[in-house]
Amino acid sequence: MMAEIDRARVRTIIEREEKQFLKSHPRSRRMFERACKSMIGGVPMNWMIEWPGPFPIFAKKGEGSMVTDVDGHTYVDFCLGDTGAMFGHSPKATVDAACRQMLRGITMMLPTEDSIWVGGELARRFELPYWQIAMTATDANRFALRMAREATGRRKILVFNGCYHGTVDEALVRLVEGKVVPREGAMPPPVEPELTTKVVEFNDLAALESALGPGDVAAVLMEPAMTNCGIILPKEGYLDCVRAITRRTGTVWIIDETHTWCAGPGGYSAAHHLKPDMITLGKPVAGGIPAAAFGASQEIFDKTSSNMLAETTGVNGLGGTLTGNALTLAAMRATLEKVITKKAYDRMVPLAKRFNEGIERTIQETGLPWHTVRLGTRVEYRFGTTPPSNGAEAIATKDPLLNKYVHLYDLNRRILLTPFHNMALMSPYTTRKDVDLHTHVFRESVEELMS
Question: Could you give the 3-state DSSP secondary structure of residue 368?
Fold first, then answer.
């Protein structure tokens, strides 16, 4: 029998937790008030106001799997910079390499030997021969789409309802009653998105086949398992069919591994032998130092290299003055060589399984109408009995009230979850004690909710 949740009780507990939050974070409150005088929303990047409570906590230090705020509270961090610090805050190998390179020069607009190693390692891991560096995953996705248009002579792209690929205009969209519209809350795009983008539901092969049939789509841009509207796993055989359909229709298949790198050292693509035409990476590739990369197959390289290597390289729409700087490449090399390793995953995956099992046990024993999903080192629990199979189903099950309850309850007990979801990442520094703390607090929050 499924348990009923008294929403009035949820609001009462949230009110109590907000009072506790205010009492515990006086310095963060004062800093936020100061910041509001010059920073939009009181933060340097507007996503930072997504945390629970009337203002964000201000960080003082991040180390390993822990974050300490300006009020002296130390948190077990399962957010890990929303994947940017997936392998821990300030991993020693990355910091040491970055410090050495900063003394030798940060950016000279010249390649360094590290770039040779990084290119070769990315080619080995992700099984695509040619790579370029970017500053963010947004840039990597934008540049990959430009290359796909160059390779195909087509202009439209296709993405999946509920997706997120950074602030790429063409991908900030939703599918509403069969119409492609700007994503809710997004500032206006330069043109109506239906002119640039087709949108279908994840796991719907018939819709994909129909959308690609006219031959006007340059690229399918997708995560192999959706993560940004919650974890949505592909149905068995789905991705093999996507590969077949894109090949048959001459469409470039771009896989965004920025979040799904949690599936293994070579991402979901290598773990499942997907063989896409292009791959984009971001966030954790340099240990938290801003960096990204995009890789291309031999065929894509052959069709685009003449433009990329022409005398007009400065205006071909790829890269920027600081892209591929010496500091970034030094950090990338150290991170790939010594941090994002099989040994790290061998530690992280069992912790994710333990985290998942702890939540599942509480859900089953209390009769909560919730469920969990795990993707490698990433775990999420959702407010619904059935895992969604596409973006529309995931969006329909969102519950802002329960989301706030879970996050605020955890934060007041020194646990940080990814603020956009009830999602947790394991790092090589995470311990069984950290995981068991969450299991204990989760059970406590559920029991109080239902008492």
Answer: coil
**Coil, helix or strand for 424?**
strand
Token code pair at residue 144: 């990959």
Q: Is residue 79 part of a domain?
A: no
- The two tokens of residue 116 are 């040779």
Residues 323, 332: Cα–Cα separation, whole Å: 13
383's tokens: 């407010």
Q: Does residue 403 lie in a domain region?
A: no
Work out whether the CA dihedral 133, 134, 137, 139 comes out positive or negative: negative
Sequence-separated (6 or more) residues with CB below 8 Å from residue 131: 118, 119, 122, 123, 293, 294, 295, 296
- 4, part of any domain: no
| pLDDT tens string 290-314 | 999 999 999 999 999 887 777 776 7
Q: What is the pLDDT of residues 241-282, one digit of tens each?
A: 999 999 999 999 999 999 999 999 999 999 999 999 999 999
The CATH number given to whatever domain includes residue 268 is 3.40.640.10
What pLDDT, on the 0 to 100 scale, is given for residue 264?
97
- For residue 319, give both structure tokens: 């890269």
pLDDT tens for each residue of 389-435? 999 999 998 999 999 999 999 999 999 999 888 999 999 999 999 99
Q: What is the total count of domains within the chain?
A: 2
Decide if 433 contacts 65 (C-beta within 8 A).
Answer: no
Give me the percent of the chain exceeding a pLDDT of 70. Answer: 99
In a domain, 370, yes or no: no
Q: Which domain holds residue 209?
A: 92-338
Among 164-168, 197-201, 315-319, 443-447, the range scoring the smallest mean pLDDT is 315-319
Angle subtended at Cα 382 by Cα 137 and Cα 184, rounded to the nearest 5 degrees: 50
CA–CA distance, 256 with 239 (Å, rounded to integer)? 14
Q: Are residues 172 and 307 in the same domain?
A: yes
3-state secondary structure at position 357:
helix
Same domain, 260 and 158: yes
Cα 133 to chain center, whole Å?
18
Average pLDDT taken over every residue of the chain? 95
> In this model, does residue 2 exceed pLDDT 70?
no
Looking at the structure, do residues 328 and 256 belong to the same domain, yes or no? Answer: yes
**Chain centroid to CA 4:** 32
